[in-house]
Inverse folding.
């Protein structure tokens, strides 16, 4: 099971939105996907429970940090997608001892045979939850928006990843920074991308996702932006989002094959 953290030490950059679309894309390619929310529970808004809770003791995000996963399973929310939801107790993880960050790796190892791809959506701060995700992951991808605040945090995130690699997870691979929510009407934002690529090289993805309202609308309806895309904006957004997802999957070594039987 390939484990990917979607992380950035800044909020409002579209981490959750991209995590869900990446899950949809991998699932439609035939991969078994495990989606984990250690942030604030936004992913549960995309996949609400259709029926009243039947009392099933689903595996929740806090259990990954406490190791209490025996007898619990993620909630199946879509064809080939299972979700480990954020719960209230996961907020307490940031106050736990530092060694807690090593437990998610051990917990996820117990689910290894059930899934091909695991995506972890993280909070925008360097605390136990984000560190635990990085320690457990093979790779991290960083959506960012074009602003001075994002640019200032890029070196800090690189330092964080380097620290995790040196102390806990030497095989952690930073796939790069993915420009998201780009304002196509802003000359400054459009012109910033070539400059960033010159400064960071291959760490800046060639792909970029333009800010469009149809993305949030699609998720509110429980599907990816490329599903039921009819208008010009929807089709353009669908193309950008799918290209970005495919670029990440390719860097992870997944084959963009026809759906598995």
């Amino acid at each position: 099971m390939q484990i990917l953290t979607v992380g950035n030490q800044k909020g409002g950059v579209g981490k959750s939105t991209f995590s869900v679309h990446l899950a949809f894309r991998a699932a439609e390619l035939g991969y078994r996907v495990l989606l984990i929310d250690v942030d604030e529970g936004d992913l549960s808004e995309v996949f609400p429970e259709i029926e009243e809770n039947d009392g099933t003791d689903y595996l929740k995000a806090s259990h990954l940090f406490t190791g209490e996963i025996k007898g619990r399973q993620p909630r199946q929310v879509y064809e080939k997608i299972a979700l480990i939801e954020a719960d209230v107790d996961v907020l307490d993880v940031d106050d736990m001892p530092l060694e807690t960050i090593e437990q998610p790796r051990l917990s996820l190892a117990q689910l290894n045979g059930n899934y091909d791809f695991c995506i972890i959506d993280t909070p925008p701060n360097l605390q136990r939850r984000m560190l635990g995700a990085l320690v457990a992951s093979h790779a991290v991808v960083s959506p960012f928006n074009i602003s001075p605040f994002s640019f200032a945090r890029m070196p800090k995130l690189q330092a964080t990843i380097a620290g995790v690699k040196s102390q806990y997870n030497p095989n952690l691979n930073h796939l790069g920074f993915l420009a998201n929510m780009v304002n196509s009407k802003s000359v400054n934002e459009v012109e910033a991308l070539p400059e960033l690529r010159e400064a960071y090289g291959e760490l800046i993805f060639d792909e970029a996702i333009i800010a469009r309202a149809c993305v949030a609308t699609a998720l509110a309806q429980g599907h990816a932006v490329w599903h039921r895309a009819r208008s010009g904006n929807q089709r353009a957004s669908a193309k950008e989002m799918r290209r970005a997802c495919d670029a990440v999957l390719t860097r992870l070594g997944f084959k963009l094959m026809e759906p598995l039987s």
